[in-house]
Records
---
Amino acid sequence: MKIKRRDLGHQRRRVGVFFMMPALILVSAFLGIPIIQAIYYSFTQWDGLTALWTGVSTYTHELRDPIFWRVLENNGLLLIGIPIAMLLPMGIAFLLNEKVPGWKIFRSIYFLPTAISWVVIGMVSLRFFAQQGLLNGILKGFGLGFIHTDLLSSERGALLAVSITFIWSMVGTNTIIFLTGMATLDNSLNEAARMDGASNYRIFRSITLPQLQRFIQFSFIITVISAFTALFSLIFVMTGGGPGFGTTTLEFFIYQSAFSRGDFGTGAMLGVILFLIMTVLGVGQLAIMRSKE
Amino acid sequence: MIMKRKQIVVFTIMVLFAVVMIYPFYFMINTSFESNAQFLGASGHSFASWHKLFQALPVGRQLWNSTAVCVCSILIILVVSTMAGYSLAKLRSKLSWLYFLGIVGAMLIPLQSIIIPAYINASHLNLLSGYWGAIFLYSALGTPFATFLMTSYFRGLPDDLIEAAICDGLSYRRVFTKIALPLAVPAVVTIIVLQFIQIWDDLLVGLLFIQDPNYRTITVGLGALSAGRTTDIPVLMAGSLISAIPAVTVYLIFQRQLVNGLTAGIGK
């Protein structure tokens, strides 16, 4: 009996390792090795064929390049939209939670953009903000025709247009996250507080918000990740990064450096910088969650 | 009475938001049934733009390409992630935590950070001429989260169930295929839905890793068409509509699974 047990343990371990292998090989080959290569090539001048070791000078050179900071500034400006991309859905989720007739249909409608590619969203958005587009049509309809907008032709305007589109497409995802959170709320607490004479605002701040904390954090991290890494196709279709560097974000800059300018070394380095930013954000988030528990 | 008025206000706001969210779809459908002249002001509707779309874009071919790429990638993700998830949840060894850390850590790697070396590697391996470069990269990108999802799902299965089956003389392999997998169907469906929408809608990987225009997916075809500065908006809208229909259909049928997948990351 004892021997059989050990046999089983042996079999268990062997099958365990064997079952792990395909995932490990796939992820190592297409994500693990490339990220290590990216780090190596970030210290070189690389055209895709031959790499010339240049050390940290690629980094110091890039950090002195105003275009690099311009690109990071664009990322920073996009982040300004995040509170809106979270507060708006939170408001919507509260309203949906009132369970007015047809709320399930509304929920489906709000979540619909999740299924649509950024290519399609970008194309429609382009028409919306165009000179002869819907935005100007609406303004005219309200008798505000004198405010003729032409967002896409200026650097800041184009970034604003990208940013509005980004917020629009995040509404559904964040609404669903908050709705899920609200389904877990303990209503008896609210009633007890109301008995004690607490105001609606006080109940929201002291009872509802703390219970939603985990969901707010999750929505925040999803929105930040999207702002940094999900907008390539949108920018590709809407603005191509322009005008000038007006809508070139870090992820788009990576693509441009490598595939438009053939400077694979710089592209790899920018990729490493993006990876570092995401790691710091991810680890920071984890640390905050741990410290709260 | 007050309650009722409040409901009316809430309902009105909901409708307004719904209009904002649904307008792009209305615009897409309506514009696609206009010719360019009609779009620019003339009245009426026509099929002219749909005819033009089928001339400008090999729609059928590209829909097929999208389907092939999605199906192969999802199959690989499913095989690999169910096995890994089962191993991490039920066949733990001393090294399991390290594997788990590696897999979860891989979720932090942004696609843009690895895409340049991955592209160069794939070109050295001659993976860029057909579907395979894209399929492998999509699979690798989808595997970490799918494994995470499968691991937490299999952890929910009672150990007794597996031990009982082992005592009945089944091997660990048979327990996986005969007991664990059939029980994991809900998680598997969630992965299929999530990945289908993600891969179907992707532009960047398809753009770089599928070099032969004959193998282009519909989303890439559309992206290329718009980047070619086609000024014929109704044609682009018809293309947008046709590329969006499959993912939207999947969304409408499997909404619940999609929501489950999204909120699985919170770890209730």
---
Amino acid sequence: MELVMSLSIEILTAILATGLLIIGLVTPKDQRRGIGYLTTAGLLGILGATLFMNNVDKTLLDGMYIIDPYSTFFKQLFLLAAILVSVGSYDYIRRLGYNQGEYFSLLVYATLGMMILASAGDLITLYLGLELMTITFFILTAYRKKDAKSSEAGIKYVILGAMSSAVLLYGLSLIYGATGTTVIKDIAAALQQDIQPIMLLGTIFVLVGFGFKISAVPFHMWSPDIYEGAPTPVTGFLAVASKAAGFAAMIRLFIIALPALQSYWVVIVMVLAAFTVLFGNFVAIPQTNIKRLLAYSSIAQAGYLLFGLVAYSALGVAAILFHSILYVFANLGAFIVVIAFGNHTGSDEIKDYSGLARRSPLMAAVMLLSLLSLAGIPPLAGFVSKFYLFTSIIDKGYFWLAFVGIGMSMVSVYYYLVVVKVMYMGEPPEDSEPIKLPVSIQAALYVTMFITVFFGIYPSPLTNVALSVAKAFFPF
Amino acid sequence: MLQNYAGVGVFFLIAAIFPLILLATAWLVRPKRPSPEKLSTYECGLETQGPTWVQFKISYFLYALIFVIFDVETVFLYPWAVKFQALTLFAFVEMIIFIGILVIGLWYAWKEGALEWL
């Protein structure tokens, strides 16, 4: 019974997902509007329940499952992202006109997969969570089944996702072969004596597998095409939550299980981070489609997040936590604007955003603040989180990497401001009218805007939470 | 560690070579008298009809998927049923939940027309 209580968050999420599927089955086709609202309400309830779990620190099922402040922090992050995405999906999914119950059910199942990923204390649980998340995303990506681009994105994601899972699984099997255990804590203990070459090979394979999941260069090729083809709310969820989930598992695995090999993997992670930041920012410049632009910018953001792993310190982990939660709000703010704009005009091209400031001041303002926060301009929250990330690596003496990061942040300001220029300086099309937003979207936009500005001006409450979680998590 | 795997390796090699030896022996011993009739494609004793690259109904795939789900269910049910006497009420409830989830899946597949042969 105690086990059931400890797993209550996951169980509630599973019940919500299955319940939504059943409700979708029993309600008539034209009365499924309420399912979206029910999803948001259910997720809010679960988010409320996680607040009681903040100080729980337990290892369940012989180390297979860990519920600690670190995993709870990430679960809250996934739930926040899922809530924002579900709010952004109402109109989009209603326009599609089919399978509304399944969409929201799959969204919650993906969230459940991420939760398992963040809590996994064992390589097999980790893989299980990863597959639950990835397979759900395959379906969500191909959700616009009559659209060739969406189907293409789905097929691409299936093939590349399967390949990266295979690489990851091979690496995990090599680690198991070398240490004789799949429990993350026991792996570290088994590595105390000597390190076999096969262990290094396993680590590299695992790193490549995670590189795919978080779309680090050179394993990023899948992401722009899939982000462009997928339904926009799914793209937002994919860019924010699935990436954070990949990081949650990766950090736990590399810091808890493989500290003995730190001197080896840190070099690779450092090179990956530098390439990811350079490539993501430079290739974002010539993009003309807003979804592709945000895809490349999210590749660059993954690079910044990798800095925290390079730092290999409590401050680095805290910076990752802080950056990823603000990234949720900034990026989903931008994506909700893209969703609402796409619903209204049916276009994702940047040139069509011309004069948006006059057609909808709220949308333009949220886009502006979100993009500037992603670029790291003070006094927005993105500045504070990047500041912590760069501080964490400068503390360890990696000045060149910090310079790359700061330089590329400046490059990113350019392409973000190109969008802003189109929105504010451009003329709206002649036959255009003001864009009316549904109340739910307006609420979501105000929330993201408020959080992005609030934690930029007054970051200490969130910083303290992130630091205390990271200190409890980081073993040294 | 490596010695343990050597046994597996030897086993693997023998398993790979053995069918090759069989095929080679048969190839050496058998009489060879080919005729056009003998070399034609064999299809259950009938004349072959039409090209092989035809489209299959996707429904086969759906049936196979649903079959696999219930196949796996049996795999889980079997050890549970064998040990049923020794298990607690908790295990019984667990299995009911498990079957319940699968039934929802079947219900969904049914309602969405996966079981209909159009």
